[in-house]
Structures are given as C-alpha cells and as structure tokens.
Amino acid sequence: MATYMYNEHDVNQVKNMQKKIKKKKQKRRRCFVLIVLIIIACIIFMTGNASKVKKISVSGCHLTNQENIIEHISIKSKETYFFKVNKNQVKKEIEQMLFIKKATVKKDLLGNVKITVQENNAMLYSYINNILYIVDEDGVMEKDTKQEKLSYVQRYPQAINFDEKHLKQFIKEYKQLPSVIKNQISSIVFEPNDKDQTKCKLELDDGKIFYVRIEDMARQLTSTNYYLVTQKYPENKYYDFLGKNVYVYN
C-alpha cells in the first residue's frame, strides 16, 4: 500500500471543504436576507401610495367638465393600483360620455395618467317632464338637470312633445341623416295619431315642413330623395313622407 506524505505546501482538504461549506451557508443567508428585503419592499410598495395612481389630468375640454370625466371613469387617484390601469377600458368609458368624440389615455412611469379628449357638437335637445335632455352628434343622450348647457344647445334643433322611449328611437334614425338635411332642421315635433303612432314633423329653416315616421326616416330622407323632391317642387311647403309615395302640397 502506497503512503502519501503531506508537506507544508500541500492543501489541507478538510479545511478547504469547511471553507466551501461556510461560503455556501453565507451565500444562502445573503439570498434569504435579500428575498426577505424584497418581500418587505413589495409589501410596503403595495400598501403605500407609491403603487397607486398619483395624478389624473384631462385636456381638450370645452363643453365637458374635467372633474366630471375624472369622476366618471373607473380609475381613481390615490386609490387605483397603477399596474391595474386598463387604458382601453378608460378610453371606452370616456367615449361613452356626452360631447366626447375621441379620447386618448397615456400613463407614465411616475404613476400619472394623462387623458386627452376630442369633443363633438350637440345634435338636438328636448324637454321631458321639465328636464333638459341633450343629445350629441354620436347620439349620446344625457340629462342636464341643472340646465348648465341650455344657452349652448339652444342654437340646435329642439325635439318637442317626445317621451324618453320615442326620443331614443328618433335619435337612432336621426343621426343617420345626411348633414345637409340635419343642418336645415330648426325643430322637430312628435305628432302621433291613431294612424301614424310615430309621426314626426320636421320644420326646416326655409319654412318647409317634412312629415315622417321615425322608423322610416333614415331610409326615406337620403340626400338623393331630399334633392329630387325639393328641386322638383321648390315652391311647396309641405312634404309628406308617411307612405310609399311622397305627397307635396301647400
């Protein structure tokens, strides 16, 4: 059996192994401490304001109110976690509001949410049970209980004698009309009778009067039909679109 003699230059394998074990333990301790610190930091971050939306700003408002938009959306400053902000959802929520045509939503790394809106105009207004209803170009209808926008909407056609159900039905058809026709309408009167329960009278700026049924209005009052009838009978006042044919008289 061979005998190996250590000298002073040989490495002590036992001590070397002990050093390696000690280093592994120290490394594990450091990793454990680091993980604990990360967990503590995450808890502090999640429970504090640092992880939440810090500020919501809105620009581009003229007809709409910034505070109303901020109140309407689902995210809230100092309450909503920043990583949970769904920009597409917020965009949809804003674009469902009155006078909002388009919205863009951005967020930065500092926890700020920036909203920019593009507005559209009113289309008509109405009084139902003494409450002011305003409708914008997209057909969005909203109550203005304080009549804050009355002076603005008075330049647009007023829908008279409507209830809420028929006004919604009318809006769906009316917004499909060509702009050349809508721009000439000064007022709309709901005049149902036993024969025509959805009859409406459209009063134009030049004194002409169109009679239409709500459900047929978009189909009958195309720009082509409008021009053909008004150019063929320019001197007549009344244009009856209630049947399959158009009747014109004074």
UniProtKB/TrEMBL annotation:
Pfam families: FtsQ_DivIB_C, POTRA_1
Domain POTRA: 51-120
Domain of life of the source: Bacteria
Entry's localization field: Membrane
Keywords linked to the UniProt accession: Cell cycle, Cell division, Cell membrane, Membrane, Transmembrane, Transmembrane helix
PROSITE patterns in the record: POTRA
Record-linked InterPro entries: Cell_div_FtsQ/DivIB_C (IPR005548), FtsQ_DivIB (IPR050487), POTRA (IPR034746), POTRA_FtsQ_type (IPR013685)
Coiled coil: none
GO CC terms in record: plasma membrane
Any GO BP: cell division
Transmembrane segments: 31-48
Protein name as annotated: FtsQ-type POTRA domain-containing protein
Species whose genome carries this gene: Faecalibacillus faecis
